[in-house]
Task: inverse folding
C-alpha cells in the first residue's frame, strides 16, 4: 500500500502553505472546497452563495449579515494564476435570465470573494473594519473517487473493481465488459489494440452505471468519465484484469504489466497532482449529496452512494485548526454534508431527509470528529425552485409543492413542456430510515418489501429555476434558497466574528 502523499509532496505542501500564510498577514483567507458526486448541484451552490452575498440576499441565520456587520462583498482576481476562473457571471445568467440550470462542473475552477465586515468583538471593532478572502474551489465529485486509488496498488484496484462489477446490482450492466475481460489472458503479450478495446468497454460500463436509471456512484477511475484533454492518452487507457490479489509481480512485456504501468501513471500524473495542488490545501469542505436521486433509482443506488461517500471521505485530512498546523500540514477543520434539492419535498420532510444523509455519512462524520474537525449535516436548496401549498385529494388536504417541471419530466404518464406550473404531492419520506438501508441481500424478501413500501410512494421531479421576485421599485431580488444561510454560518461565520 502506498500513502496519499510522498515526502516530496509534503515538502511542496509546506512551501505552498508558507506562501498562503504570508499573504494572509495582510488579509486573512479561507479556502473552501465545494464538491459532490454527479448532479449534486455544485455549480448551483457556489453561484447562489456568491449571488446572495453580493446582492444582499435574505440570510437570517448568517450572523454577519443578520446583524448588519457585513458591509459588502465583491469578487476579486483569484490568487492562483494556473487555475481556471469559475464562470460565475455565465452561471447566474443561466439561472436568472434563462431559467435553466448551468452546466455541470467539468474541471477545477476557483473564485475569490472578499467580504468586508465589522467585528462582533468590541476590541477588534476599535481596530477598524475587517476583510476576509473566501477562496471557493469547485471540482468534480468524480475526481474525489480517485483519491482512494493513491493507497491501492493495481491488484487491489482490480479486485475492488471486479467485485463491484459482479455484484447483483451491476452484473447485467457490466456483462459486455466482463465477457470481454474473460477472454483476455493477463500474461499474454502486451497489445495496444487489446488495451484500447478493453478500456473502451470498461468506460462504457462506468457511464451506464452513472445514467439516471441506475444512478450508481462508485465509478473510479473518475477521469474515465470526464477525460478532457487527456482523452486517448495511455494514462487513461487501462482496465482491471482478473488477477489474484496475491499474484506474483507481473512479467515484463505482458498485458498485465502494461495495464499496471498505465494505472500507476494515472495516479502519478493525474490523481496525485490534484490531491497535492488543490485538495490538500483546503481549509473547509462542503460535500453535496443528491439523496433524492439515489432514492428514485432504488436500493442499489442508495447503498452504492453510502459506499462511495465512505471511500472518498476517507481521503480527507480533517483536524483541529491551529496556526502551526496550517503552515506545516493544512487540515480541513469544518466539513458540511448537505442533502441538496430540499425544495423537492415539503418542509415537513426536511428532518427526514437530513436523517437519511446522516445514515449515509455516519462513518465518515465520526472519523472527522475524532480527528478534531467540526461536522454538520443539513438539508438545503441553494436555489429554491418550488413553493409550498396545500391541495385537496379525495377530501384530504395534502402538503404540496408548486413548480415548473423541466421539459420532458413526466407524472402519471403526462409529459411537461417546461412552461406549465403544477402542484404535486411528492410523497412522504419514511420516518424510520432502517428500511431504506436494510436491503443488502436480494433474497431477503421481507427487507425488500419494507424498502418498496418506503420508496414506491415517492416521486421526485426536476424543476426549472424560479422567476425572481421584484420589489415595488422594480429591483430584482437575490436567488431564493432553503438554509443556504445556515450553511454560510457554519462554514465562515466564525471567521467573521
Result:
Amino acid at each position: 500500500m502506498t500513502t496519499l502523499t510522498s515526502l516530496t509532496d509534503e515538502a511542496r505542501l509546506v512551501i505552498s502553505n508558507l506562501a498562503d500564510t504570508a499573504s494572509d498577514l495582510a488579509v486573512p483567507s479561507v479556502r473552501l472546497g465545494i464538491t459532490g458526486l454527479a448532479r449534486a448541484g455544485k455549480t448551483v451552490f457556489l453561484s447562489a452563495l456568491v449571488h446572495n452575498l453580493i446582492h444582499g440576499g435574505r440570510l437570517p441565520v448568517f450572523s454577519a449579515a443578520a446583524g448588519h456587520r457585513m458591509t459588502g462583498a465583491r469578487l476579486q482576481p483569484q490568487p492562483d494564476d494556473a487555475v481556471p476562473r469559475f464562470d460565475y457571471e455565465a452561471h447566474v445568467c443561466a439561472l436568472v435570465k434563462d431559467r435553466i440550470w448551468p452546466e455541470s462542473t467539468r474541471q477545477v475552477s476557483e473564485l475569490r470573494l472578499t467580504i468586508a465586515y465589522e467585528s462582533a468583538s468590541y476590541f477588534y471593532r476599535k481596530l477598524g473594519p475587517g476583510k476576509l478572502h473566501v477562496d471557493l474551489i469547485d471540482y468534480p465529485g468524480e475526481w474525489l473517487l480517485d483519491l482512494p486509488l493513491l493507497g491501492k496498488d493495481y491488484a487491489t484496484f482490480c479486485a475492488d473493481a471486479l467485485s463491484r462489477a459482479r455484484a447483483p446490482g451491476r452484473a447485467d450492466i457490466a456483462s459486455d465488459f466482463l465477457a470481454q475481460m474473460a477472454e483476455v489472458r493477463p500474461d499474454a503479450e502486451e497489445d495496444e489494440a487489446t488495451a484500447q478495446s478493453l478500456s473502451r468497454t470498461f468506460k462504457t460500463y462506468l457511464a451506464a452505471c452513472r445514467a439516471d436509471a441506475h444512478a450508481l456512484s462508485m465509478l473510479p477511475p473518475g477521469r474515465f468519465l470526464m477525460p478532457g484533454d487527456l482523452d486517448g492518452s495511455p494514462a487513461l487507457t487501462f482496465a482491471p484484469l482478473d488477477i489474484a490479489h496475491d499474484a506474483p509481480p507481473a512479467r515484463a512485456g505482458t498485458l498485465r504489466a502494461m495495464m499496471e504501468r498505465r494505472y500507476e501513471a494515472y495516479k502519478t500524473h493525474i490523481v496525485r497532482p490534484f490531491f497535492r495542488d488543490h485538495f490538500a490545501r483546503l481549509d473547509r469542505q462542503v460535500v453535496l449529496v443528491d439523496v433524492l436521486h439515489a432514492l428514485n433509482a432504488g436500493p442499489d443506488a442508495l447503498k452504492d452512494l453510502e459506499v462511495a461517500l465512505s471511500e472518498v471521505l476517507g481521503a480527507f485530512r480533517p483536524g483541529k485548526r491551529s496556526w502551526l498546523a496550517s503552515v506545516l500540514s493544512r487540515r480541513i477543520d469544518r466539513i458540511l454534508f448537505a442533502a441538496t434539492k430540499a425544495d423537492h419535498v415539503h418542509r415537513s420532510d426536511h428532518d427526514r431527509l437530513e436523517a437519511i444523509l446522516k445514515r449515509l455519512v455516519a462513518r465518515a462524520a465520526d472519523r472527522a470528529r475524532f480527528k478534531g474537525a467540526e461536522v454538520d449535516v443539513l438539508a438545503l436548496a441553494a436555489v429554491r425552485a418550488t413553493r409550498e401549498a396545500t391541495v385537496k385529494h379525495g377530501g384530504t388536504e395534502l402538503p404540496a409543492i408548486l413548480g415548473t417541471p423541466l421539459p420532458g419530466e413526466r407524472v402519471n404518464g403526462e409529459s411537461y413542456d417546461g412552461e406549465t406550473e403544477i402542484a404535486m404531492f411528492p410523497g412522504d419520506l419514511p420516518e424510520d430510515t432502517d428500511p431504506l438501508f436494510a436491503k443488502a441481500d436480494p433474497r431477503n424478501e421481507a427487507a425488500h418489501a419494507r424498502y418498496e413500501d418506503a420508496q414506491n410512494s415517492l416521486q421526485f421531479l426536476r424543476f426549472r429555476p424560479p422567476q425572481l421576485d421584484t420589489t415595488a421599485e422594480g429591483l430584482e431580488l437575490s436567488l431564493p434558497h432553503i438554509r443556504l444561510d445556515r450553511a454560510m454560518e457554519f462554514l465562515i461565520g466564525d471567521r467573521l466574528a
Observations:
- Residues 97 and 467 are 9 Å apart (CA to CA).
- The first helix runs from residue 7 to 24.
- The longest strand covers residues 109-117.
